[in-house]
Each structure stands twice: as structure tokens, then as C-alpha cells.
Amino acid sequence: MTPTTSEAYDHVIVGGGTAGCVLAARLSEDGRRNVLLLEAGGEGKGFWIPIPAGFSKLLVNPAFNWRFWSEPEEATHNRRIAIPRGKGLGGSTLINGMIYVRGQAQDFDGWAQQGCTGWSFDDVLPYFRKLEAFDGEGDGSRGREGPFPVTGVREHPEIAEAFIAAAGQAGYPRNRDYNGLTQDGFGYYQVNQRNGRRITAADAYLTPARQRPNLRVLTGAHVLRVDLKGGRATGVTYRVDGTEHQVIARHGVILTAGAIQTPHLLELSGIGDPTVLAAAGIAVRHELPGVGANYIDHFCTRMNWRVKLPVTLNEATRGWRLGAAVAQYFLTRKGILTLGTGLAHGFVRTRPDLEGPDVQYFFMHASYANAAERKLDREPGMTIGVTQLRPESRGTIHLHAPDPDVPPAIRPNFLAALTDQQCMVAGMKIAREIVGQASMDPYRAYEMAPGGTCQSDANWLAFARDNGQTIYHACGTARMGRSSDSVVDPNLRVRGIEGLWVADASVMPTIVSGNTQAAVLMIAEKAADLIRTDSLAA
Ligand SMILES: Cc1cc2nc3c(=O)[nH]c(=O)nc-3n(C[C@H](O)[C@H](O)[C@H](O)COP(=O)(O)OP(=O)(O)OC[C@H]3O[C@@H](n4cnc5c(N)ncnc54)[C@H](O)[C@@H]3O)c2cc1C
User: Fold this and answer.
1) What count of Cα atoms within 13 Å lies in the side-chain half-sphere of residue 244?
2) More confident position, 372 or 445
């Protein structure tokens, strides 16, 4: 099909997700440049999106979720693992768990030490502050006036209080702001909600910018490739309702299609590892072996317990009690429908020699008959998700067909590194120790998974291999760095191509110590400054 060349813009942004919404808003705010935002999904409007408890519905809804799957891998016993990704304006913030975690200062200092000049914690802190509207107590490092609301969860059920107290009994202190200067400890999660409703990146950034005459937002526009001429990105080819169009980007193209689809799009455009491209039948336009390598994600096991008392979501979301919760939510914006995936948190060090926590916990007073689809048990139960914060295992995401509609092959390579295996085992043992403390006595009936027969390290590891899932933090697949195996330089420019940037989760050289949306928003805020400066100099 011959595409029709329609229009020209200064900046063409590909993917109206978390980072894309930030860039569209920031690059259009001074009115000096025309911006086109192309999003393959829709407007991102639906009944369940603003309701935090709608998370479980959105995890399986193809209207808002690309619903990718991993390839089977031996280390996770050849299971295909669900890899959800948000689709529509707002991207993964449409369907995510809303947990807000910045990460540790050492994460960003580590980026700078690897050659990513300008990305140390001191460099990125102003961008975290710029994006946040935090309404809780906290130290002076928190932002108060930004577009993205950050607030504590509204529910503090008695069993969560008991869990936090149990952590204290096991020697892990309470921490009222893990996004402040110290991450260690236990308490309640902070979430991106306002008045009990989910606030997406589109709500926070795009909606207020939508009326600007220099910003055009096109939904249902699936970008098929970046167009290249003489070592420069000239625009993109996209498809709307089966018809292909070309748009010219005078200053450049910014890829914000996320850590799964950005490397896919680069490869579809002939940018990548020649061996990979040749195997898929794609002509090489620019050799860049790092594309699709360095795939990092957080692997999570879910331990659960039967609870003695009817104080959990399992019973509270059935029959008349669900009706009461729905009424409470719509009347007061309070109650269990304000809960997404995060209630109480924990950040611990599994070894005393570590500079910061290496394990994160997600406590929820609910247990799942099907964790991937969030189907709740009938009897009272509770779950602790256990995740390693900085895994060493690295996977890949590569295309295996030239057809943009064929999803890429996703190989997370979870648990490949021995350190990762040891850290997961240590983290799960600590979770069991905490639940064994006296303050949990009134609630703990028995451990359902992995259960009392799990005692040796080999048992724990087998449990992880059999049951672990992603907690959806794919990143690193268009890595920022200085060396030739990185994909973008510290100004986020794709190596060797003029006028092409990547500014989403793909650029993280290593994963941050926590849920990734805060770091993605920060990256996009900083990218807007880098690209604006570059554009004014042009
Ligand atoms: C189910 C789930 C739960 C999560 N929970 C949390 C959480 O609680 N806290 C947290 O911090 N993080 C969480 N995350 C992770 C976090 O949401 C992501 O790291 C972050 O939102 C990624 O932002 P992004 O801009 O890189 O990509 P995305 O936000 O995924 O945006 C990519 C956008 O590009 C569009 N797109 C892709 N390909 C094309 C194309 N070819 N043409 C046009 N458009 C295209 C997509 O439709 C999408 O809108 C979760 C993620 C998921 C999926």
C-alpha cells in the first residue's frame, strides 16, 4: 500500500502512553512548535478506568490492554507469562496498580556512574519534584505543585496495621514516606489518585493541554515504522482504519511506545541487530545491536495465607457487602473500591552489607484463586507479593516477523542469575518470618502457598519457578549509555540517527528499585527539556 503524505509537524510523538502524554504537554506548552501525538489505542475512557478496584477487570480487557505473552522459558518451567501493557491515551497508567515509588537515590547515581551524565539523583530530583503533587507528610524532597497527584491509600484495615506491626516485631521499622530520603521499612503505599479516583498520565498532562492549537492528538493511529532518509528520521508511517499515512517530522520523531513496542518499532524500521533483522526478513537501515537487548523486569512471587477472621477483600467483594461497598464508593469515594494493587508496603535488605533495600513487599488482605487474572478466593485470605528490586538477569524483546501486527518475541529470562534466585528465596523467608510474629496471631490461620512443606532453598526456588509472574515493570530495551552497545545517548538521541529520540521505560540502563511509572514520568519530563533545548538550537 502506498501511504499518503498528509502533514508536517515539528515533533511527532509515537505512543500516547505515560511518557507520551508528558512530552505532548510539555513540548506544546510554550506554543513555539507544532506537535502531533499518535496513539494506536483509543481515548482511554471506560467505566472501570477511574475506579481503582477496576484494576482486575482491566488486566484482561483487550480494549485497554495489548495482552502480550512471554515465550516459554525453562527457568520458569516453560510457562507463558502474561505481559499486560496499556493501550489508549494514558498507556499503562490506564491499567496499572497506581502505586507510586520513586526508587532509591543509588539507582540514578548508578546510571550516572555508568556514563549517563545528567541522570544522577541530584540531577533528576528536580524532575520528580516538578511532576508530583504530593499531599502527605514528607521531607523537603517531595514535590507539591506538579500535575501528577500522589496521595496515601485511603484504607488502613486492621489486618494491614497488624502486618506493619509484625514487621516491627521482626526488626523492620515503620516508614511513613518511602519516597523520602529513606526507602527501608513498612507502611502504606502512595498512589496516583485524586478523591478516590485513578488519575492517569492523560488526565494529569494531556487533558489540560488538549485545546492548544499547536497540539494534535490522533487516536487509533498505529505507527508502522519510522521513515529514514540519509541517516535522519524524517517522519513516520502510520495506519488508521486500514489506510496508511505518512507524516513529516521537521525537528524529529520521539518514540514513547513503551519498553515492549519501542524496540519492536525500531526493528520494524530496520534499526537493530543485523542478525535479528535478517532472520525476520527486514532490511538493515542502521546497525544498532543493543535494540531489544537488556530487557529487565521485576519478577514477583505471591505467598498467601488463609485468614481466621472475615476481614479480607475475599468476603467483602461478594453479595450484599459488595453492594454496600459500591454504594459507599459512589457516595463518599472511600472504601475498598479505592484500592488497586497496593495497600501496605515493605522494603527490606536481605543482607546487612547492602546500601539499600533489595526486596519489596506488596501486602493485600486478599488472596487469589487466579493471580494473573486477579480472581479472588471465597474464604478469607491475604497475600504478600515478594519482588527483587534490582535483578541481574537480562532478557530480550525482538521481532520475529516483518508484520507490525505480529507481537514480538518476549524473553524475560527471569531467575537466570544466581543472585536473583538467592534474593527471591531470602525475601520469601523474611515474609514468612514477619507473618509468624505475634501481632498476626489473631489473623493467621495457615500458609496456603507455598505452604509448610516448603522448607529448603530448593523448595523455595521451585515455588518461584512454578508460580512467579511479572509485576509489569518492563524496561531497558533501548538502553541509555555511552558505549556502542547502548541505543540512546544521555540526551536520549538514538545513536547514529539524526532527529530520533526514545523517551520511555526502554531507556533505563538498569531498573529502578520500585514500581516504574514515577521514573518514566521523570524521564519524560527531563526528555522534554532536552528535546526543547535541542530544537531551539536547530
Ligand atoms: C498491569 C500493570 C500494572 C502496573 N502497575 C504499576 C504500579 O502500580 N506502579 C507503577 O509505578 N508502575 C506500574 N506499572 C508499570 C508502569 O505503568 C509502566 O512502567 C509505565 O506506565 C510505562 O510507561 P511508558 O510510557 O514507557 O509506556 P506505556 O505507558 O505503556 O505507553 C506506551 C503507549 O504507546 C502506545 N503504542 C505502542 N505501540 C504503538 C504504535 N506502534 N503506534 C502508536 N502507539 C503505540 C501504546 O498503546 C501505549 O499507549 C504497571 C504496568 C502494568 C501494565
Assistant:
1) 12
2) 445
Please, are residues 186 and 175 in contact by the beta-carbon 8 Å criterion?
A: yes
Counting from 1 in the atom list of ligand 1, the atom nearest the Cα of 88 is 49
Query: Which is it for strands 68-69 and 132-134: parallel, antiparallel or unpaired?
Result: unpaired
What are the residue boundaries of the structural domains of the chain, listed by start?
Answer: 1-149+197-296+394-414+473-538, 154-188+299-388+415-467
* β-bridge pairing 190-191 and 148-152: antiparallel
Per-residue confidence (pLDDT) for residue 327, from 0 to 100: 92
Residue 37 grid coordinates: 501525538
List the grid coordinates of 355: 546500601
pTM of the model: 0.97
% of the chain beyond a pLDDT of 70: 98
Does residue 473's CB lie within 6 angstroms of at least one atom of ligand 1? yes
When the pLDDT of each residue in the chain is averaged and rounded to a whole number, the result is: 96
> Read out DSSP for 377-446?
PSS-EEEEEEEESS----BEEE--SS-TTSPPEEE--TT-SHHHHHHHHHHHHHHHHHHTSGGGTTTEEE
Bond prior to 310 in cis (omega within 30° of 0): no
| 517, 518, 521, 523: CA torsion to nearest 10 | -110
Provide the pLDDT for residue 331.
Answer: 94
Report which protein residue has its CA nearest ligand 1's atom 53: 85
Asked if residue 398 lies in contact with residue 292, where contact means CB atoms within 8 angstroms, the answer is: yes
Burial of 47 (0-12, 13-18, 19+ CB in 10 A): exposed
**Is 345 annotated as catalytic?**
no
Residue type, 321: R
pLDDT single digits (tens) 409-456: 999 999 999 999 999 999 999 999 999 999 999 999 999 999 999 999
- Fold for 154-188+299-388+415-467, please state it: Cholesterol Oxidase; domain 2 (3.30.410)
Task: Please give the average per-residue pLDDT across 159-186, as a whole number.
Answer: 96
- Contact between 17 and 256 under an 8 Å Cβ cutoff? The reply is yes
Across 355-382, average pLDDT: 89
The residue from 251, 286, 365, 473 that is catalytic is 473
| Ligand 1 pocket member 38 (CB < 6 A) | yes
Q: Any idea what DSSP says for residue 144?
A: S
Q: Which of 494, 191, 493, 218 is nearest to 343 (CA)?
A: 191
Q: Is the pLDDT of residue 487 over 80?
A: yes
Domains 1-149+197-296+394-414+473-538 and 154-188+299-388+415-467 belong to one CATH topology: no
Measured from the CB, is residue 408 less than 6 Å from ligand 1? no
At 29-54, the pLDDT tens digits run 999 999 999 999 999 999 999 999 99
Q: What are phi and psi of 445, to 5 degrees?
A: -90, -65
According to CATH, the topology of domain 1-149+197-296+394-414+473-538 is: FAD/NAD(P)-binding domain (3.50.50)
Predicted pLDDT of residue 4: 66
From ligand 1's centre to the CA of 513, what distance in Å? 18
- Count of all residues that appear for the chain in the document: 538
